[in-house]
């Protein structure tokens, strides 16, 4: 059975979607955002994906180990770095229920570097994406758009890497809070330190209080938007904190495929610092700019051959321009 939950899970980390009727067309930002609107409906003035979200603020304090890996300023700061963040549910439904197991949670962040400059970090609650490149993602979404079980089944049989995200999410409890779930960067980055040494890595943020989940039955009894009051109560007791880490890559680890799972239990992780979410922020603050995964600074490089990576930035720009346009 093809459920709405399956469709949402497929769109979970996405900012792109099904193209309008163009046979054999390659994926591009404009048509992909059009198609995302076609799946979840047009919702003027809001994001095309990760639509349901909460704007927050806080700070980042780098660890003493971080400068050995990178010369990036936010990892070398002697004072806390301001953070504007946004928790969200995947997909383009502005009312996406918080209890949905097979939908990713996300956190996107601007790190304030001063003088109007910032760098961004986007993480989701799964270590993998659903497609290795835009064209594969296009094929997946085109199949799902048909709502034809046979066509969808045939796609997954031919493209088993597209099943990894949903399998990962379904094997775990529903997160009890935005503050009690692990978050990953699905792309491989490269650090460069002051001595010019390079290191491939992936980001992971771990909640300081540990992961906490709830059962499927508990989730069904919750209000669809229970994360917001839960976060309010949690913040009243103190900051929501995460240890940001770098999972260090080794020779042979794929750097161009966001569906590929690195074996974390066999990889060294380095503490990069502590993210502290301290309060809610005006939603306009999150909406006035783009959280762009390609917005990196000297000392951090994005993946050179991961074609999903630049497409996300392009699609975010399309979505941003549309939500800024005067509403009819």
Architecture overview:
The protein has one domain (4-324): Catalase HpII,  Chain A, domain 1 (Beta Barrel), CATH 2.40.180.10. Helix 2 crosses helix 10 and helix 4 runs antiparallel to helix 5 (149-158). Residues 1-25 have low confidence and may be disordered. The chain is an alpha+beta fold. Strands 1, 2, 3, 4, 6, 7, 8, 10, 11 and 12 form a ten-stranded antiparallel beta sheet that branches. A two-stranded antiparallel sheet has the order 5-9. The chain is 28% helix and 24% strand. The protein has helices at residues 4-11, 29-40, 66-69, 134-146, 149-158, 164-170, 216-221, 227-237, 283-287, 308-324; strands spanning 53-62, 81-89, 105-114, 117-124, 174-175, 183-184, 189-192, 198-207, 213-214, 240-248, 269-280, 300-301. It is globular and about 55 Å long. The longest helix has 17 residues, at 308-324. Has an organic peroxide-dependent peroxidase activity. Residues 1-23 form the signal peptide. Keywords: Heme, Iron, Metal-binding, Oxidoreductase, Peroxidase, Signal.
């Amino acid at each position: 059975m093809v459920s709405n939950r399956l469709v949402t899970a497929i769109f979970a980390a996405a900012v792109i979607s099904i193209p309008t009727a163009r046979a054999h067309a390659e994926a591009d930002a404009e048509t992909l955002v059009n198609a995302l609107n076609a799946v979840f409906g047009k919702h003027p003035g809001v994001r095309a994906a990760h639509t349901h979200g909460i704007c927050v603020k806080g700070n980042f304090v780098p660890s003493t180990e971080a400068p050995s890996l990178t010369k990036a300023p936010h990892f070398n700061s002697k004072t806390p770095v301001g953070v504007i963040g946004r928790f969200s549910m995947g997909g383009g439904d502005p009312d996406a229920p918080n209890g949905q197991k097979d939908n990713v949670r996300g956190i996107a962040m601007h790190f304030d570097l001063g003088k109007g400059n910032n760098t961004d970090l986007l993480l989701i609650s799964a270590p993998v994406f659903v497609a290795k490149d835009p064209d594969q993602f296009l094929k997946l979404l085109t199949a799902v758009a048909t709502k034809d079980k046979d066509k969808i089944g045939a796609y997954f049989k031919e493209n088993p890497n597209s099943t990894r995200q949903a399998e990962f999410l379904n094997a775990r409890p529903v997160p009890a809070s935005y503050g009690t779930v692990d978050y990953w960067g699905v792309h491989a980055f490269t650090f460069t330190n002051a001595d010019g040494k390079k290191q491939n890595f992936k980001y992971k943020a771990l909640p300081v209080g540990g992961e906490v989940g709830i059962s499927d039955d508990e989730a069904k009894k919750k209000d669809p938007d229970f994360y917001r009051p839960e976060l309010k109560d949690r913040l009243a007791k103190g900051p929501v904190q995460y240890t940001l880490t770098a999972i260090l890559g080794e020779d042979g680890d794929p750097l161009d495929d966001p569906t590929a799972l690195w074996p974390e239990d066999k990889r060294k992780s380095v503490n990069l610092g502590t993210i502290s979410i301290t309060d809610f922020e005006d939603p306009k603050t999150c909406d006035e700019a783009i959280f762009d995964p390609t917005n990196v600074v000297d000392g951090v490089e994005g993946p050179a051959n991961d074609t999903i990576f630049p497409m996300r930035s392009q699609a975010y720009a399309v979505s941003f321009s549309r939500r800024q346009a005067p509403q009819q």
